[in-house]
C-alpha cells in the first residue's frame, strides 16, 4: 500500500540539465532534459531513493513530464503509477553523502536488474543558501497498456528548499537504459538541500 495524495515529502535533490539533439534518444523530442537523483527522508510520508529523467512541456499544461524514473520503494512505485501515471520502476541505489565544514559531497551509483545505469558525484555549498519557495506541475500522458492508467493525469508540486548551483559529474552506462546520455556533459547542475515538497495537492 501507499499513502493517499497529497504526498508530503522531505529530502535532498541533485539535478543536472542536458541538451539532447535530434535522434539522440529514441522516442524523445530534441531539446533540454533534466536528470535528478533524490533522497527522500523522514519526516516525509515515504523514505526512498529515486532517479528520474524529465523534460518541459507546454501543452496541455505548462510543466514537466517524467519519461523515465526508478525508485527503491515498492510503495512509491505503486503510488506513483496509480495516482499520477508516473512510470516508476524498481532499481537499486548506493548513495553516500558527506558534509564537511563548507562543502557537501555526494556519490551515487544506480543499478537496474543487476546492470549499471549510472554513477554520479556532486560537490556543493547549498546549505548556506536562503530557503526559497517553488511550485510547478507534472503532466503525464498515461501508461500505455495499463487499463485505468492509460489516460493523461497531472499533479501539482509546491514546496521550498535551499538551492545553489553545484559541481556535477555523471557517467551513464552505454548499454543501460540511459545509454542515450552516455558522453553528454551537463549544462548546469543544482543542489536542493533539505527540501519540503507536496505532491498532488490542491491547485
Secondary-structure blueprint:
Elements: E1 7-20, E2 31-41, E3 48-57, E4 63-71, H1 74-84, E5 88-90, E6 92-99, E7 104-112, E8 115-124, E9 131-140, E10 153-165, E11 167-172, E12 188-199
Parallel strand pairs: 4-5
Antiparallel strand pairs: 1-2, 1-12, 2-3, 3-4, 6-7, 7-8, 8-11, 9-10, 10-12
How would you portray this structure in words?
There is one protein chain. The protein is mainly beta and 203 residues long. It contains 1 helix and 12 strands. It has one helix at 74-84, and strands at residues 7-20, 31-41, 48-57, 63-71, 88-90, 92-99, 104-112, 115-124, 131-140, 153-165, 167-172, 188-199. It is globular and about 50 Å long. The model has no long low-confidence stretch (mean pLDDT 95).
Any idea what the radius of gyration is? 16 Å
Overall pLDDT score: 95
Q: Output the structural class.
A: mainly beta
Overall 3D geometry?
A: globular
Helix content: under 10%
The fraction of residues assigned to DSSP E strands is over 45%
Taken in chain order, the helices and strands follow as EEEEHEEEEEEEE
Count the strands? 12
Q: Spatial order of the strands in the main sheet? A: 5-4-3-2-1-12-10-9
Largest sheet: 8 strands, mixed
Low-confidence spans: pLDDT under 50, at least 5 residues? none
